[in-house]
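Incident log, structure service

09:12 report received: a user says their structure output differs between two submissions of the same chain.
09:20 pulled the input from the user's history:
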Amino acid sequence: MKVLIVKTSSMGDVIHTFPAVEDALRNRPDISFDWCVEEAFAGIVALHPAIKSIHKVAIRRWRKKLFDGGIWREMADLRRVLRASRYDLVIDAQGLLKSALVAIQAGAPVAGFDRSSAREPSATLFYDRKFAVPRDLHAIERTRRQFGLALGYQPDLSMLGSGIVPPVGGLAGIEGRTAFLLHGTSREDKKWPVENWIETARQLADRQFTPVVTWSNEAEKKVAEAIAASVPRAALVAKSPLADVAAILGHSTLVIGADTGLTHLASAFGLTTVAIFLATEPGLTGPRGQHASTLLAPAGGKVTPVEVVAEAERLLTLRSNAPT
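09:34 re-ran on a clean worker, output below:
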């Protein structure tokens, strides 16, 4: 059975889908999976060894140039390739109108959430098979249940695995324990103050960690440089392709991150991960993993560097004492 997954974005949403793929591989070894994803996140999908083909979309870019003939040719090429792939089923794991419109381009039956479960009920107009999955569940569990209903099995929710491993690589010239500090995030209200990152880096350096920082834009560069300038032990990594950042991240001892896609990736790699949530509720979309935890700022309160480092030490101690 040949199945196409449509989960185009964001990075965290893509990563949240991997456990559902793992369920399916255990329960339906007859299935092969392809994936349709935003071009920026194709490298993340490629981390899963079971994904055969990756079809790239560029919805964000296409929207800006709808009257460009080249854009229409790209969309036509996607439709042609999807139809030529002859899928038995398409699973729209996103539940949005944009993902539903992508899903139907394959010309195969489309499975998705029902009207009460989809994030955008209008998307269900394009589904052939619709399933009810409570919206108050974590995104990972929702997707696992959806795949089980679409493919005819009951997922074992007592297990959680992503099936991905870090790319080969790491941070050259650095020995010992590293702590990747993921300070960058898409919204201002999600950002932890730079002075807190600096203090956290100092405390980690005092504990013989090498703090690692990088950036993806000019605003993040200023933060990364401020951390590196204040903590001589810190390693400053220049702006790099996502695959290179994933390789460095995946070989870190500890990851401390804001509410951002790379924090979810760290958790999916099975790394010791502390997520700092300031403006969003982690209950439905926060990182999940055996060695991950989330610190949520209380109403009107703050998350302090002391709390973050203490939580990191707690997780590291639990990990070191866990039976092998």
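09:41 both user submissions now match this output. Likely a transient worker issue. Closing.
09:42 reviewer note: The chain has two domains: 2-151, 177-321. The mean pLDDT is 95.
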